[in-house]
Amino acid sequence: MTANTPLRSSLAGESLLFAGRLFTHWRRAPTVPTQALLFPTFFLITYNLLVGKSVVRITGTNSLYGLVPMCAVAGAMFGALGAGLTIIAERESGLLGQLWMLPVNRASALTGRLLAESVRTLLATALITAVGVGLGLRFEGGWFAVIPFLLVPVLVAVVFSMAVIAIAVRSKSSALLVWLTVPSITLVFSSSGVPPVGMLPSWIRPLIPLQPMSPTIESMRALAQGGPALWPLLLTVVWALGLGAVVGPLAVRGYRAAAESAG
Q: How far, in Å, CA of 72 to CA of 153, rounded?
């Protein structure tokens, strides 16, 4: 190897570098970890203390088995929304274009961002689950169910992050991402995470299983309770693959266009 031979690194290594850059940014400006962890944890503890016993008395079931998955998924989505705001700031400052001009694999910046979102969601889900265990959540089917339980929100985070990226790179301001919070909250809280479907108004019951968050939360509930989790897990994967096939190409093309125009 001569001195003029360019150094080559793998896509995986470059993605790790970009992911590490995001983690450094999040440590210095912890808006994303706050949205991903503090808000759902606060909601989990508050809801359980205020109405947890009432739900058990009325329904005969512990609300933690739906509440913990719902908070974990909500944290994944809110964290992705916070991370989307950083993309807008990077594009406006020209940093997105500068990173695009680096002699690295073109896909590494985007894959590094998705990797950082995945790790953030995994850590946040683990902490939220630990709080849930402290409040009384038990994995009745065995502790082997913990691994898929923690990975389900990661799958949600990756797909939702691609949707956020597709919007953020085209958005003129952060207003659109702020408004995206409303349907995100609606999707999470209109699932079967807190109230049993049978207790909801009759007109909304048929709609609950049709939205993507319901099989996601039901799969995590089944994993914790030791029930049949295969069908809701399959539905979750189908939803993720279907949505990913739509928003993934939009995110890639939008990110490339925003980076090249910023450069």
A: 7
Residue 221 CA to residue 64 CA, distance in Å, equals 9
Q: What is the pLDDT of residues 166-211, one digit of tens each?
A: 988 887 777 777 777 778 877 777 776 666 666 666 767 777 777 8
Enter the pTM of the model: 0.87
Backbone angles phi, psi at 167, to 5 degrees: -80, -45
For residue 135, what are its two tokens?
Answer: 């409040």
Average confidence (pLDDT) over 12-17 = 90
The domain spans of the chain are: 11-262
Question: Alpha carbon of 216 to those of 63, 81, 133: distances in Å?
Answer: 16, 19, 20
Rounded distance between C-alpha atoms, residue 17 and residue 97, angstroms: 17
In whole angstroms, give the CA distance from residue 229 to residue 190: 21
Element containing residue 114 per DSSP (H, E): helix 108-135
Q: Are 31 and 190 in contact (CB under 8 A)?
A: no
Q: Which tokens is 259 given? A: 């980076």
Average pLDDT for 9-22: 88
Residue (of 216, 215, 114, 108) closest to 158 by Cα position: 114
Look-up: residue for tokens 């203390």? 49
Q: Rounded distance, CA 70 to CA 78, Å?
A: 12
Burial 147-185 (b: 16+ CB within 10 A, else e): eebbebbbbbbbbbbbbbbbbbbebeeeeebeebeeebe
Q: Which residues contact 192 (CB under 8 A, 6 or more apart)?
A: 66, 208, 214, 217, 218, 221
224 vs 149: CA distance, rounded Å: 7
d(CA 62, CA 53): 8
3-state secondary structure of 57: helix
Please identify which residue in the block is written with the tokens 């928003």.
Answer: 247
CA 209 to mean position of chain CA atoms: 20
Question: Which among 193, 246, 241, 200 is positioned nearest to 216, based on CA atoms?
Answer: 193
